[in-house]
Amino acid sequence: MKKPEIDISIDKDGQVRIKVHGVSGEECLKLTDAIREIVGIEVSRQLTTEYYGTPGGVRIDAQVQQRN
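Given the sequence above, the corresponding structure tokens read:
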């Protein structure tokens, strides 16, 4: 089984983007929710077409703002 891959980027304004690869559906949401709890408040969430696909082909693009 392939392990999930998580890409996290932080821009100069503190906006954090999280992209998850390698899991689908609820598992992907659990991963991004756990990271959101650490990083800050979620500003937006975009479920990509891979989210609805089979395991191993999902990507979620979530944007959070750091807590002050």
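Helices lie at 25-39. Try to locate this feature in the token string yourself.
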